[in-house]
Amino acid sequence: MTMNSNNGKQDKPVITAKIDGFFLVFYNIAVFLGRFFREAFRPPVEWGEFVRQCYQVGYKSLALVTVTGFITGVVFTEQSRPTLSEFGVTAWLPSLVAIAVVRALAPLIAALICAGKVGSSIGAELGSMKVTEQIDAMEVSAINPFRYLVVTRVTAMTICLPLLMFYNALIGCLGSYIDVHAHEQTSLVSFFDNAFAQITFLDYTTALTKAILYGFTIGIVSCYQGWNASQGTMGVGKAANVSVIVSMFLIFIEEVIIVHVFNSIR
Amino acid sequence: MKENNHQVDRNTTVIKIRELYKSFGEKHVLQGIDLDLYKGENVVVLGRSGTGKSVLIKIIIGLLKQDAGTVNVLGEDVDQLKDADLRALRLKVGFSFQSSALYDSMTVGENLAFPLQRNNRSFTKDQIRKTVDIVLEAIGLPDTINQLPSELSGGQKKRIGIGRTLILRPEIMLYDEPTAGLDPITSMELNKLIIAVKERFNTSSIIITHDLTCAKEVGDRVAVMDEGKFIQTGTFDEVFNEKTGLIKSFYDYNFIQ
């Protein structure tokens, strides 16, 4: 007879049930992350599902990213003009907008949009699959559901968010150009020459690092919430909701840390 | 004994369970289960809701781990297997869920093809399509291939769920409440399908149910579970010959219904 535990008797809490539960969450997240890295580098790669997820994350977010990027560019330009014109330096508008967009706004906006749109959808989809036993059905069909569902989604998020971020930055600058052109009659070439003259390699690196990290965070958080959903439809709603809240919270924490680290290098 | 009982090979045990215990917190669900499933045999596990019947087959397939005891399936101790070995074993064991657990974003054809595509990557599209057609024909639903699960009735979903497990040609089938929530006529059709699966695909099965008609129709042997233990095992007639206690309640309730 194999004895795996104390015959089902419940262990007493080490500290209190609540504190134990708090640490258990961290333990479970660490196990989840560990499993992700273990599975991500093992063949076979689920290319079909990965491409489908890239389409869901990237292509289907394009419209929203375009609109928000454009509005951000226009509004930021409009808001900055009065202050700059007080000092007679409206010529700085292109570079000011470009620095703001590339360094801070584009990564954040793209990430927040993806956390809201894609993160909630991943949380709800996986949560729904979990509570309706579809994930168990994959397990019993000798399919690795973690690799098929989690690895593909997290990888797609991590790869697509940087692309969306650069696209968002470009559209933001274009929005700014249209506003600047309407007021200061600047040409497109002159605007973009001025805009990107002040952007350094480190700025691009910072933005790219942020976007990769935010994408990974949204993917992991949403998949973790969906994967561990319980309590039927209520659990599905909770998984979607918590995915967004936790992702956004972590994105802001990461923003502070990354800015601090890269500013110390600068 | 059932008509098809001649197929049972009592010298070959495909599932051997000894001293199986499982608890969830303070709730002791399984309390020392012993069970042998012979090749070609259909064993029906009968019991009230919440007595641990589904937990038993989820332990057999490795979805849950036991607290104590051994579960040996086709010569392998399930809880000792590594992930890759467990997956290899699962190719030989089909599991039909109570809720059918069909992938709701896929059509019926895609649901059936999915396990095959993932486990036999060398299969061509034509081979997969052909296998799907054979299984759909075997479960009597050849016209549903392009339908979504949301467009199917409860009975059809159960059949497709069974079909999805059959596509991998398992040696053992585990059915979790196959007739739950179905009308008597659809239940009867499901019972016939379970018998047909055994005959056509040469499977051995454990059928979890609380439906006595199902037990009588499909079971070569019946095991009645109460409070985490088998209180009686034998053929349907042997078990229900002496109708006392829980068995009497079961019998009376089912046949009054």
How would you describe the overall organization of this protein?
Chain B: Residues 15-252 form the ABC transporter domain. Chain B: One of its GO terms (molecular function) is ATP binding. Chain B: This is ATP-binding cassette domain-containing protein. The complex is a heterodimer of chains A (266) and B (257). Chain A starts with 16 loop residues before the first helix and ends with a helix. Chain A is mainly alpha-helical and 266 residues long. Chain A is built from 9 helices and no strands. In chain A, 82% of the residues lie in helices and 0% in strands. Chain B has a 6-stranded mixed beta sheet, sandwiched between helices. Chain B has a 4-stranded antiparallel beta sheet with strand order 2-1-4-5, covered by helices on one side. Chain B is α/β, with parallel strands linked by helices. The chains are: A mainly alpha (266), B alpha/beta (257). Chain A binds chain B through residues 1-10, 44, 128-129, 132-134, 136-137, 139-144, 148, and chain B through 18-19, 21-26, 28, 61-63, 65-70, 77, 79-80, 83, 87-88, 90-91, 93-95, 97, 99, 101-104, 114-115, 118-119, 121, 164-165, 168.
